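Hypothesis: this fold can be encoded by more than one sequence.
Test: take the structure tokens below, design a sequence, compare later.
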């Protein structure tokens, strides 16, 4: 298939604003190209190469939904990159069998049925906004098969019980396995309230262990608050590392903490740590509750229970790092992820042709498959 992938409008690929989506783009391209598909990625200007032809589009970045209230209206900045990306996707659609939307935005969900080429949506976050919930529900009603999610709990946050869950995939050869870690706890993510760095800091302080923090500071005031609230935590700020570099570093940690305050859709950091042999202690919430094998690759703790978090870290030190890495290979490699994506795309296209149209209603069909 010829697949047009539209990346997130919140930031160029490679700079960290797009969070997990930036890593998903890489895995998705790698896996689908390996399976013989032809991909092109559309992404904001300044994006780094991602393993297939890339077309970049200028414009003002889209404000991320996670920084807005549930009842916030849809925002379209002047000369917005989101509108420009989808204008370009509209122009390029005829040369593709399918358009794959990776952004968490209202516009493509609303616009998708008007395209002549089917637009599929890999939703990257859980329910955060009424406007987005409605847009997702509309697609679920008219083109259920066009939606896919990273985890079951993420899907269910939209009130959808039966749908496509594709998980995520990682190029595991790019992660450095480390058998003998440093006496260091780790935390990976955008530094923003919903990612919950504060609880990890409290646990690290209670354990008298340094806490290495990797990630882009999205909310400087939040970072300052966390530092002020946890004066005895020995933070080791690592800044935002390019993904390939982070994969060489993560294995230094004895244990990774994942303490989200929101419904984490998948939580790439969990799997990326496991790929390096690092056990993970995570809150039993969102994606991590599905990716951590309790007692094998890490431990799950009820959200907010910091003392339990610290106790589980002590237990996690004893987990077998080789087994963690092996389990990660069994569950999260790129090839099965790409297979699941392909199955989803083909099933959605079949559903569309069964309805007698490539798009919504009797619109022209895409290139012949
Ligand atoms: N990341 C990175 N460099 C850093 C910190 C994080 O490349 O210094 C990547 C990390 O590997 C992960 C992504 O940023 O894949 C964050 O994704 P996640 O699903 O954990 O959270 P999101 O930001 O999407 O909420």
């Amino acid at each position: 298939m010829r697949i047009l992938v539209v990346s997130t409008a919140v930031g160029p690929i490679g700079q960290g604003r797009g969070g997990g989506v930036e890593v998903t783009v890489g895995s998705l391209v790698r896996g689908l190209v390996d399976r013989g598909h032809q991909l092109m990625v559309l992404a904001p200007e300044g994006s780094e190469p991602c393993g297939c032809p890339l077309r970049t589009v200028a414009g003002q970045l889209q404000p991320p939904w996670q920084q807005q209230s549930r009842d916030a209206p849809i925002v379209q900045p002047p000369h917005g990159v989101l509108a420009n990306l989808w204008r370009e996707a509209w122009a390029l659609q005829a040369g593709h069998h399918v358009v794959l939307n990776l952004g968490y935005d209202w516009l493509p969900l609303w616009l998708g049925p008007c395209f002549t080429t089917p637009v599929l949506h890999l939703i990257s976050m859980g329910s955060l906004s009424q406007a987005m919930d409605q847009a997702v529900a509309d697609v679920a009603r008219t083109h259920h098969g066009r939606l896919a999610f990273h985890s079951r709990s993420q899907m269910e946050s939209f009130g959808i019980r039966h749908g496509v869950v594709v998980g995520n995939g990682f190029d595991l050869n790019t992660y450095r396995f480390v058998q003998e870690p440093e006496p260091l706890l780790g935390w990976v993510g955008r530094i923003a309230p919903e990612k919950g760095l504060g609880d990890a800091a409290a646990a690290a302080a209670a354990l008298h262990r340094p806490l290495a923090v990797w990630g882009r500071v999205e909310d400087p005031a939040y970072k300052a608050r966390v530092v002020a609230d946890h004066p005895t935590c020995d933070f080791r700020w690592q800044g935002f590392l390019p993904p390939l570099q982070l994969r060489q570093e993560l294995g230094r940690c004895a244990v990774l903490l994942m303490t989200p305050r929101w419904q984490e859709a998948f939580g790439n950091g969990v799997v990326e740590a496991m790929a390096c042999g690092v056990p993970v202690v995570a809150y039993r919430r969102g994606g991590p509750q599905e990716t951590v094998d309790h007692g094998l690759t890490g431990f799950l703790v009820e959200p907010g229970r910091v003392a339990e978090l610290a106790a589980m870290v002590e237990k996690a030190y004893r987990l077998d790092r080789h087994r963690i890495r092996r389990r990660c290979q069994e569950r999260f490699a790129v090839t099965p992820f790409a297979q699941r994506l392909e199955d989803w795309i083909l099933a959605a296209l079949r559903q569309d042709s069964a309805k007698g149209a490539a798009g919504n209603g009797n619109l022209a069909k895409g290139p012949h498959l």
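The longest helix spans residues 334-354. The chain has 13 helices and 13 strands.
Hypothesis status: open.
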